[in-house]
Structure formats: C-alpha cells, structure tokens
Amino acid sequence: MAATVAATNIMSSLKLRANETDTDQVSLFKPETLTTPELEEKLRQLKDPGEPPIEFRIHSNLTVISKIVDDFDCFLTRNGGHCWIFSTRGLCTVAQDELIFIFNENINSANDIITDLLIHIHQIYIDATKGSFVRHLGLSLLSNSSTLLGSSTAMGFLYVSDPTSQYNLFPEAPYVFGILIHRLELPTAQCFPMRLLLRLGYEYQSYPWPLFSVCDRNSMFSDTQHTIMSLLCDFRSFTYVLPIIRSLTISVGIQGSVSIRIPRNRHDDILKALEQSSPHALSFGIMNVNREIHSKHLVTMQNSADQQYETHLLSSLTPNAEHIRIGGNFLVINASLRSRDSPSSSPLDTQNSGSFSLQNNLNAKVNAIEDGIMLQIDGDALKILKQCLKERKDYAILAKARSIFVEEQNDSRNENVMKRSSSEQLVEFLWIDDDNDINRGVRSPIDHFPMDGIRNSRIHYAGQRSSLFRLRWTDLFFIECLLNSNESFDPTRLADSLAKAFTQALTPFIDMLVEAKYRKLGLRVTIDRENASYIAGSNGEQLPPFFLSQLDDHMIPIVMKASDNVSRSAPSLVLELIFYLLD
Fold it and tell me: Cβ–Cβ contacts within 10 Å for residue 180, how many?
C-alpha cells in the first residue's frame, strides 16, 4: 500500500535524525509510571471541578498544566463527553510556540497518555534549543518508540494555529494545537496537511477543523494512489510537494464563479511556485481557512469501496449569510487544451490594479476536483497567466463550468450533491492588500500593546548556559521599520547591541526581578533624528525606577548613537525585544 510505504520512508528518515540527538539531553526527563492508586487519585483530581489543574513538572523551565473538563466548547462536550486538556508553560523561553493538546477522555490509556505526551513535549523542547521548531502545519513524530499514547497506529501530531480559540487553561499567545495523526495519514499530513485537517473537521462536525484528538480512531485516508495529489506531490521520497501560499484564498461563488485572491506581500511565494512549475501546468494550495470570507469549504473523502476520492462540503455550525462563498483547498491549472488559431486575449487597462488581462475563451474549462479547483486552458493562456502572476497583475478568463458548486442536503451528515453552475463562469486572479495574519493575540509585556499583524523574528541561542538564573532574548518585533533601501543602518544589529546591554544591566539584579515576578520583560526602542527613547516593562506596566536607572547607563549611549546614524529623511524605527527570566 502506497500510504504505508510513504509512512515507512518518513519514519526511517526520522530515526536517522533521532540517532544524531544529544542522548544526554534526551535522558534528562523520564517520567515515572504511576501506580494504580496514584493514577486513580490523579484522575480524580483531574475530573473534579473543585480541584485545581494538575501541574506536571518536566524541568525548572517547562511544566504542563492538565485538567479534564466538560465546558470547553467542541464536538466532544456538545455530545456529552469530556475534554482532557494538556497545556505547556515554558516552551516560549526557547522561541517555540506553546503547545495545547486536547483528547477525548480515555481513562483506559491514561498512564500511557501522560507518560508519552510529557516525553514528547520534552523532545520538542530539546529540538527547539537546537533551532528546530514546530509551527502552524508542522509535524512532530514519535522517534524511539513503536507506540504513542498507548496506540500502535498513532504516529505524532500535526499542529494548527487558532488564536481565536481561548480557554482559561490555555497559555499566553502564541500557541498551537497538536492534532493526533494516524500512521496511514502521515503522507497526507506531510504533503498537504490542509486536506487532512478539513477531513477531520467533516468527521467531527467542527469547522474548519477540530482542535481535539480522538485516540484510536480510524484513518481518514488509507491510500494515495487514487488522488490528483499523487501527480502534484511525491508521496514516496517527498522530493517535491504542492506549494502552499500564506493567506491565499480560493473561492467559489454561489453561481460557480471562481476567484483566487493573492496578498501582494506573497509575491515571492508565487514566484517560487512559478519556478517549480512545469511548462504545461501550475498548482498551489492554501495555508489556512479565511473564516471572514468562507463559512463553507470543499473537503474530500476517500470511498472505502474503491478508494476513490469524492468531493463533499463542510459547513460552519453558524453560517453567516453574508459569507456565501465556498473555500477551496488548492488550484490546478492544466494547459491540456489545444490553442485556438486566433489570439484569445486582450489586455484592458483598469484603474488601481494596473494592467488587467481578460480572456474570453470558452475553450477553457473549470470544475471542482476532490477538495480543490481545476482550470483547463490552452498553452497560450497559461503563458499569459504566468506572466501576469510574475508581474503582479490581475488576470481573468471566461470558462465553461462543469460541476463546480456544491449544495447541502438537509440531513445530519451534511451530505451533498454536485450542482451544475451556469455554462459560462469567470475565473479571476486578483492581487489584494498585504496580509497581516500573523501574531494574532500576542501582546506586549510592557503595556499589552497588540502585536497583531506585526512581523517578528525568533531569536535562537544554541547552547547558551549560565549559573542560577539567566535572561534569554527570544523575540524581536518590528513595530515600525520602513527604512529606505539606501539606508546603511541595520536594525537587527542594533537589536543585538540592545539585547546585550539589557542583559548586562539587569543580570546583577536577577533575584529582585524574580521576587517582583517579572518573568517576561519587554524593551521598546524608538529611533529617529528628533526622538530617541526607550521603555522597559513587565506584566503590563513599566519597570520600577530602580531598574530603569540601572538600564539608563547601558541603553542611552546605544540609542543616541543609533539616532545619529539615521538620516533625517528616514521614518521612525520602533523595535521591541522580548526577554524571559529562566531558572
């Protein structure tokens, strides 16, 4: 079976990497297996709403908070079940997003779940200290065991970001949710994780996907030979996969029109997809679901009888009448049609979007395929489209539409049928404003200033050691950074100098910071010719005057020198550095 072969290939490469891991570090944490009375007492505390959450201590800078609850809104609790939540505290100190794992209540494997999960989290911590992180759509797989959470079919976790989902046990943003994946799902999770996530959403009536895991569930996909993805991805050696574009959306209108919206700041990703494409085809997929645009989404299911992939529709439990467009997972453009004898395109000048190419070419065809859209055009049209994408210009083509609109039936399983749209549909590629869907929910420790949409860099210090305590610089936020291209000023070099000065100034007073419970600190610096200043704070307020006076001697010379090196015409530069106080 292709899926089994692919999963074996992935695990073989993983074991090679695992053998290179520092065994001394990995062996630092070995959780003890609880005796039956101890486990029963833990489970009683976990389930008792009057008891506080249990804290599992992996080491001094990494703990896991756990509780079994029935008030977290999801498919499990809506059907009378409970959620077993595990939430980390301390991964942020090694520039790794905090992790949240939510399981169905599975008391029979409770000991295995606790032990295996704590070991897995510790391994992620060790990997992060070496510069390997798990992010949105990333994977963490088991390495030194044949089972995970007591299951021989569980292979690891697929991670998704959902800052809109909040609960009192969750850590401070940023965090990601770990979704348990089946052994046979590993090739799909590796090559096109969005397909698996939406399929799980359909299975558990959770739009767009569940944030919980069901232990010992059946695989959603068991074969990769009968899908169009076998042409777009290498499921065996993974030498190529479907390019995915952050914040790109693929939408199907109620009558069958198709629009592909591309943020302008993702032009480099489009260029990479163009470079990887063949002369006769082009394809790319999405990286997230835009719930502000779509309340429904195409999803594909594998037929158990013949292993074929079928198109279905996943709907939000609370659909918005204004959001009537249906989301697609990927787009395949195939130049399989013969070119017409006469030219089929005419460039039209439009305001705001520059050059706009419209092709009235009903030789083209568009239809839904699995959980995506296929556009069949001729070679000439593909050349024009690729050129428009390369030059960041809008493009549209009229095409014959086949089965492209999916319609729900009124039953409990949201079954659906394919409905033919009108015979002629517009397929448009539109460049839209820059996306800022990053760092949602992240707040400054100085004054809770929202970092939504502000780009940042994670700082990695491999092998840094100290004595009892240390300050670790983990993040650099570019709140305002629009320096001219001819500026010789380097904001990252400035940030490095600021970080060194900050740690040198406060390290002698670590015990006072600990006593004041200043575990996460921020340093915000403003640089321009007219104003050079800094502020430092923690827990939503500025640091007391004593600490600021210690910082002045170290910070002011650097800030003033940086201000002198910026040209008068340069806009203001505002940076914020984040530090964590470690045991």
Answer: 24
Cis preceding-peptide flag for 174 (omega within 30 of 0): yes
Judge if 170 and 236 occupy the same domain. Answer: no
Residue 367 lies in a domain: yes
Q: 469 and 428 in one domain? A: no
Nearest to 495 by CA among 507, 506, 479, 510: 479
Q: What is the pLDDT of residues 258-315, one digit of tens each?
A: 999 999 999 999 999 999 998 999 999 999 999 888 989 999 999 888 888 999 999 9
Give residue 274's pLDDT: 95
Of 326 and 412, the one with more pLDDT: 326
Q: Which domain holds residue 109?
A: 36-204
In sequence order, what are the beta bridge partners of 259?
Answer: 251, 428
Residue 38 is encoded by which pair of tokens?
A: 């101890």
Q: Token pair 């039936």 is at which residue?
A: 409
SS3 assignment for 57-121: EEECCEEEEEEEECCCCCHHHHCCCCEEEEEEECHHHHCCCEEEEEEECCHHHHHHHHHHHHHHH
Specify the CATH number for the domain of residue 370: 3.30.1360.220
Task: Let me know: does 367 contact 421? Beta carbons within 8 Å.
Answer: no
Q: Which is it for the CA torsion 330, 229, 333, 390, positive or negative? A: positive
373 CB-near residues (< 8 Å, 6+ apart): 250, 252, 258, 328, 330, 331, 332, 366, 367, 404
pLDDT tens digit sequence for 370-390 = 999 999 999 999 999 999 999
Q: Are residues 54 and 157 in the same domain?
A: yes
The answer to whether residues 435 and 263 touch, using CB atoms and an 8 Å cutoff, is yes
Helix axes 267-276, 379-390, angle to 10 degrees: 150
What separation in angstroms does the CA of 467 have from each of 89, 94, 445, 471, 510?
22, 17, 25, 11, 11
What is the pTM (predicted TM-score) of this model?
0.87
Q: pLDDT at position 249, please?
A: 96
Residue-averaged pLDDT of the chain = 84
pLDDT at 5 over 90: no
pLDDT average, residue stretch 54-79: 93
Q: Does the residue 368 lie in any domain?
A: yes
Of 141-145, 478-482, 521-525, the poorest mean pLDDT is in: 141-145
Contact between residue 104 and residue 76 where contact means Cβ atoms under 8 Å apart: yes
Count of beta carbons in the 10 Å neighbourhood of residue 212: 25
Tokens 């000065």 -> residue? 501
Question: What total number of domains does the chain contain?
Answer: 3
If asked whether residues 268 and 188 sit together in one domain, one would say no
CA distance 181 to 193: 10
Same domain, 383 and 523: no
CA-based torsion, 418, 422, 424, 426: positive or negative: negative
